[in-house]
């Protein structure tokens, strides 16, 4: 039984919250005064004082996580033209935030504050006005001083929440909040994703289409579904007597079915976990559940040059299920690996269309998602029906292969 969890509902749409707060008695900028650029040393010193004050205040409020100066955000703010910064008290605050490359910086929200005072020291004393800097969710800031008039200094502060881009290494190391960009519509999401021991299909809440499929191995680490096909080859003697390709296909299918006993691990029985096995492990262990044996068969067939995919979907009576499909000489065959005994020849997919409802499939290079209805699918290879997403990289070094050794027994010492 294959268990799967959708991440779609875990991911919420990204919102850039725009908060514009202008505090202080702003005057129309004095054109001579604003040309006086505040030197970098003063800027740097102010940033250090301000950051220390903000973090001290956060700590006093019981917020353990410190905000840090984000170099990307700071560089961006430093690059903005002096005229725009100096006029920040006016309408250009909106313009400034609109220019913020949130996607590049992976910010989930950003707020812009603007205060002014007579000197950098008195500015630092007004930091309590930067409310968003004291929000628990804020983790990065950037700031820039400017001269707002002859007698006043202004400061722009961006307080933002930065989230890492989704990647499996971070996810496997315990990160759960990510910035994800949909590979269909290019819209961004931010949300939490928890390691649940089940395969996870990522679905976009904007376009409602899937674009990624990851699954946990026996150690609980996640990998892309297609990376489980790590290039495992069948022993040369298997199907060596076949004289046609269909005979070779059938012999490889028969070898997997004969070798591997169908089993579910105990956690899988409770429906809580479903780890995927590397094909070489399934071969060594001589057992596995539907996706384990499908992975083994697909990897073998691909190694022998068959155009084969592992398919994940629903099979009435079996629930969530996995099987293989192969395209050969203009026909498509469906290979069920949990049978006790296989027929002489694999059935063509159209004969099984009412019993197998695919949702995702993959080969070594791509993960494919069905466009539209999943019922009565008999064409598993049409690019019109299946949207392909390339996830390059082999799992040869990524999916751990767990070697089990027999127990060592010591020989009894006998004494004459
Ligand atoms: Zn989308």
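^ Assign residues to that structure.
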């Amino acid at each position: 039984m294959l268990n799967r969890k959708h991440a779609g509902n875990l991911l919420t749409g990204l919102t850039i919250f725009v908060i514009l707060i202008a505090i202080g008695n702003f005057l129309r900028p004095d054109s001579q005064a604003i040309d006086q650029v505040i030197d970098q040393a003063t800027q740097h010193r102010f940033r250090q004082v301000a950051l220390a004050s903000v973090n001290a205040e956060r700590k006093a409020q019981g917020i353990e996580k410190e905000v840090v100066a984000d170099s990307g955000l700071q560089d961006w703010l430093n690059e903005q033209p002096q005229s725009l910064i100096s006029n920040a008290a006016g309408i250009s605050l909106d313009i400034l935030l609109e220019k913020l490359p949130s996607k590049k910086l992976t910010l989930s929200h950003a707020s812009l504050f603007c205060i002014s005072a007579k000197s950098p020291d008195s500015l630092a004393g007004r930091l309590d006005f930067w409310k968003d800097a004291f929000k628990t969710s804020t983790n990065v800031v950037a700031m820039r001083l400017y001269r707002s008039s002859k007698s006043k200094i202004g400061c722009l502060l961006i307080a933002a929440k930065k989230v890492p881009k989704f990647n499996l290494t971070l996810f496997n190391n315990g990160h759960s909040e990510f910035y994800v960009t949909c590979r269909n519509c290019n819209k961004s999401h931010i949300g939490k994703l928890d390691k649940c021991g089940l395969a996870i299909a990522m679905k976009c809440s904007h376009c409602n289409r899937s674009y990624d499929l990851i699954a946990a191995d026996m150690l609980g680490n996640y990998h892309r579904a297609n990376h489980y096909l790590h290039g495992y080859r069948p022993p040369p003697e298997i199907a060596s007597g076949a004289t046609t390709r269909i005979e070779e296909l059938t012999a490889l299918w028969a070898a997997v079915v004969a070798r591997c006993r169908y089993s579910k691990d105990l956690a899988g029985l409770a429906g809580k976990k479903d780890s995927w096995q590397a094909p070489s492990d399934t071969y060594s262990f001589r057992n596995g559940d539907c996706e384990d044996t499908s992975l083994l068969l697909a990897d073998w067939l691909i190694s022998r040059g068959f155009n084969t995919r592992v398919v994940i979907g629903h099979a009435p009576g079996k629930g969530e299920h996995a099987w293989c499909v192969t395209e050969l000489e203009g026909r498509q065959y469906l290979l069920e690996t949990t049978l006790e005994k296989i027929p002489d020849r694999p059935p063509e997919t159209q004969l099984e269309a009412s019993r197998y409802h695919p949702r995702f499939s993959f080969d070594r290079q791509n993960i494919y998602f069905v466009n539209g209805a999943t019922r009565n699918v008999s064409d598993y290879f049409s690019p019109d029906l299946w949207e392909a997403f390339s996830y390059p990289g082999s799992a040869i070094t990524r999916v751990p292969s767990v070697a089990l050794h027999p127990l060592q027994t010591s020989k009894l010492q006998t004494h004459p």
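The longest strand covers residues 107-117.
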